[in-house]
Amino acid sequence: MDSEKCGKCGKVATSMCINCKTAFYCSRECQKSDWKCHKTQCRSFEIVSDEKIGRLLRASRDISAGNILISESPIIIGPKWTLDEDEEMLKFTCVGCFETINTLYYKCPSCSWPACSSECIGLLNSELHDIECQFIKFGNGPKEKTNIKSIKGYFRMDTMLALKILLLQRKNPKKFQAIMDMESNEKNRLLTSNFKEAEEKILFLEENFLNPLEKAEEKNGQTILPLKDRKILHKIFGIIETNAIYINLQTGTEICGLYPTAALLQHSCLPNVSYKFDMKSGFKISVKAAKDIKKGEAFSTSYTHVLWPTSVRQQHLMDTKYFTCNCERCIDPTELGTNFATLRCIGSDEGPCNGFQTQTSKFEFSCNKCPIKVSMEHVNMITGRMNEEVDNLLSLSPNPATIEDLIEKLSPFLHPNHYLLFNLKHTLVQLYGKHKDSPYDTLSIDNYKRKLSMCEEMIKVVTALDPLSIRIAFYTSILLYEKAMCMYEMHKHKYDNIDLNEVKKCLEDAKKIISVEEDLTEGKQLLQKIENALIKF
Ligand SMILES: C[S@@+](CC[C@H](N)C(=O)[O-])C[C@H]1O[C@@H](n2cnc3c(N)ncnc32)[C@H](O)[C@@H]1O
What is the ipTM of this complex? Predict the structure, then answer.
């Protein structure tokens, strides 16, 4: 730095821009006043085009872990455009802040759509509830005003994000154009269920708002909204499906946003960036390097779930984003050595062969010890049935004994790390020591050893699948916490020669990992538990 001069005034520089490390300054004031000019060069990436992937972000220099790569506001924020069964059946969504509401207690005074309360921050914030309010207030309202099904069928917040985008052509044409420039997968969507679902939402918007508007436009000889045909609406739904990034509100409610640069992050099941949102600054996203990134490497995030096996992730990516992932995990039949979808080979008529079957082609599972092959269809049928059994059991708040029974039943067919056993064991380790049927004081040495070994096995799996702890921080942190608590209790009961330094290290690792999710209620609660446990050391 000695020889560097301040980029603003030319004096000897004493600091540099920590983001790009290429601009030098003599003082904070100089750095601040240079930001307007420097911010355009501070970018650590370039936008390039790839034949298969389309546009992507590529590092334009070596980047250190922790560097902020993108920091930007959303073009638009809105409620989710698909609802799960529970949301569809029971709940309403606040038109202002998009939080879930259970009753129709309060309404927006202007448009009369359901809202959470008179203090709703969204009703006062023009970024959240604005131009659409002026628009939906002219809607017909529910056909049967006392019938809950009819009321639910009218206040369709799953159409709201598309409507907000459509209305941007009037409110902010620049933002509208920025969204229209995003990838829509228009051709790939044709004939898919996504297209059909969008079609149904478009019919709703036409019937209730767009057709009446068109009639009014004709009557008055004045066009208010030039673009409102089905083609543009399908394009908007395609853009939302392809680019929207989910945002978890503190309460756990998911909403989504469209971000101009972050939308260009490509997918990898082993991503190299992480991101978080700042709720206070209008859901600004900040994307950070999760590891050192070399010049020329693409920035990547994961569009899918880490704890799904390859076949399920691939199907999900194809169904929602229309491509096949070829990352290191996807092309490895053992899923990075975890055997997350590996089955035990049942062998031939002569008996089991003690081998394991992994997926070796798109259509087949092969054994590593004998010539047996099983079709993907067959595997899907068997694991589908097992999956149902696992889901059913876990939905019934089971006790440890019933989970152990199911693990015993499925174990002859599955690798110990198989994702179905993983799900059961992840619940089981949290129950041993806490469930009323098995508090710590009543656990046998075998129970303790079992809990500890399950935690250790699963920590290896999550470390392989999410080495930077950016996608399943909660799962990983829980495992480390449960391992630490188990070891601590074993030490208290003098069951084993436990190294308390290792217990402390586990808790510190758990704390570090969950700190990225401390903005969420669940994350905060876990962090509190870990901090309480750390007081003992
Ligand atoms: C959020 S957009 C990313 C930006 C997009 N590439 C563009 O040009 O606007 C998601 C789309 O990018 C493409 N894509 C992203 N990651 C990919 C990958 N790993 N392999 C192939 N295509 C990918 C797919 O077409 C996907 O639907």
Answer: 0.99
Query: Which residue from 242, 273, 275 has its CB within 8 A of the most atoms of ligand 1, so it is best to mutate?
Result: 242
CB 414 within 8 A of CB 365: no
322 close to ligand 1 (CB < 6 Angstrom):
yes
Note the pLDDT tens digit of each residue in 68-83.
899 999 999 999 998 7
Rounded distance, CA 387 to CA 67, Å? 40
Which H or E element spans position 170?
helix 160-171
Residue 217, domain member (yes or no)? yes
- Angle subtended by helix axes 230-243 and 310-321, to nearest 10: 150
Q: Cβ of 15: how many Cβ atoms within 10 Å?
A: 16
Angle between helices 400-410 and 419-431 (to 10 degrees): 160
Q: Are residues 234 and 205 located together in one domain of the fold? A: yes
Does a structural domain hold residue 66? no
Which residue segment(s) compose the domain that 485 sits in?
A: 432-537
Q: Which of 70, 188, 266 has most ligand 1 atoms within 8 Å of its beta carbon, as the pocket-test mutant?
A: 266
Measured in Å, residue 25 CA sits from the centre of ligand 1 at 38
- The confidence band for 88, taking pLDDT boundaries of 50, 70 and 90, is low
Q: How far apart are CA 195 and CA 50, in angstroms?
A: 26
- Is the CB of 187 inside a 6 Å radius of any atom of ligand 1? no
Give every CB contact of residue 253 below 8 A, 6+ residues apart in sequence: 98, 99, 100
